[in-house]
Amino acid sequence: MSKESPIIHNESNSLSLDSIQENVALIRQKRDKKDYTLLKKSTVPNIEDLSKTTNGCHYSITDGIRIDYFFYKKTDNAPLYIFFNGSLSGDIPEFKRWSYYNYLDGYILNIADPMYYANPGLGLGWYWGDENTNYREIISKFIKKIICNINYSEIIFFASSAGGACAIDVADSFKPCKVILINPQLKLGLYRFRKAFETKTNINLSLEDKYSREDVTEKLFNGNKIILMSNISSEDERIQLKYVASKYNLDIKYGVNKYRNLIIWTYDAPGEHPHNNQEFIPMTDVIIQLIKDFDKIGQLEKYIDLFGEFWYDHYALRQYYLKKDHMLSEYRIKSKNKYSISFVDKDIKWLHEKICLLDTNATYTFVLKNISPSKRCSIIIKNKSTNQTIHKLILDETNINEPIQMHIGLSKAPLELRIYPGLAEEYLDSDMFLELEITSHLLKQKYET
After folding, report:
1. Are 449 and 411 in contact (CB under 8 A)?
2. The pTM is what?
3. CA distance to 5, 11, 13, 14, 276, per residue, from 8 (Å)
4. Model confidence over 373-396: pLDDT tens digits?
5. pLDDT for residue 262
6. Domain that holds residue 361
7. Domain ends where: 286, 319, 352?
8. Residue 4 located in a structural domain
9. C-alpha to C-alpha distance for 182 and 180, rounded to whole angstroms
C-alpha cells in the first residue's frame, strides 16, 4: 500500500520518524543561528545602491547626516522589510531585529537612529533631528535613493517603541505600503521618558514643530495598511491607545479591531517590563503573514484571538520561571557581598535576563567561571529612570577566570544591572550554560558615572 502524503507539507522541514526529535532540534538550531560577522562596523561610506551592496553593516552620508544601516539580501522580487529601532540599549549604531534575516523571506534594511551620534548619552531619540532638520525626511530621501535599483515586490515597514513614529512618517512617503507597529509611541509627549529626551536634546515637545513630529496619529489613516499591536498589560501602551481612541472616537476592544486601513490588535503579555514584551520568533511569522493577508483579516479573527492567547501563555510562563528561579531583582547587590549567577539549559528557554538594583559609588568585579563554547554573556548597567546604558561588557570563553572591574560613581537615579545570556536584546541560543561571579566593594574615592 502506497504512503499517503500530507495535505500540507514543508519540504525544508522533512523529517524521519526514526530521528524526529533530533531533527526538530536541528531545525530550531538552524533557525536561531546568527552570523555575528555581519555586525562588523563599516569604516568607509558605502555606494548608495543596494543592488551593489554586500550583506552586513554600512553607512552613508545624506544631506550631511550619517545614516547607519544593516542590509541583507536573499532573493529578488521579494518584500523589502525596513526596520526602525527603539531606545538605545547597546553600542552605536544599534540594529535590533537584525537577525530577522534568518526568518524573513526578502530584503532586510535596518536603519539606526542618527540621534545618538548628535546627542551623547541620549536613551531614545525618535529619529527626530533638531528644530530645522528632520531626520525622518532625510531617511525617506536616503531610502528612495538606495532602493531604486533593486527588484522588490512590496515595502513593509517594521518598528516598535521609539521607532514607531518614524515608521509612520517615513511610510507616508512610500504610499501605498504596509506598516507593522508594536507598542509604538505615536504621541511622544505622553511617553514617560519625555523629560529625559528634552533634557538631553534641549527640544521642548510642547512647542509647535513645523515638521509635526511629536504627534503622528494624523497619518494613521493616510492610505497605508497598518497593523498596530499594543500590549494592554503596559500602562505606556494604554495611555497611547486612549489618546488614539479619544481623538478618532474609536471603540477599542481586546483582540482585533479594524478601522478601514488600520488594524489595532490588543494583546496581553504580562511581566515586570510589559512594554518590552513584544513579538517572539514564532509570533513574528504570524504577524508577517497577517500583514500580507491584510484584506482577509476579518476572516481570520478567531485565529488571531488564539494567537493572542499564545502570546499571553508565552510571557506568563516566562514570568513564572523567573519567579521560580529567584530572580536577582528581588535583591539589591550591596557592597562587600559576593553573588553567583547560573544559567543552564532548562532555564535558558524562559530566562531572557536577570536584573537587580546596584549600590552606587562602588567597584564591581565580574568573573566568568564557565560558559558554553562559542557563546557569550552581556553585562549592562543602565539608568533605571532614563533607560540610558552607562556601562556595557561582553564576556566569552576567552575571559574565563579573568576578573574585570567596573567603577560605578555616585548617582541620584537608581541603577540596574542586566545580565543577558547571549547578546543583549537578542533571541537566545539554546543549550547554553554560564556561571558568573560578582563581587562588590564600596568606594571611598568618588567616581562620576
Report:
1. yes
2. 0.75
3. 8, 10, 12, 12, 34
4. 667 777 788 777 777 777 888 887
5. 94
6. 330-442
7. 319
8. no
9. 7
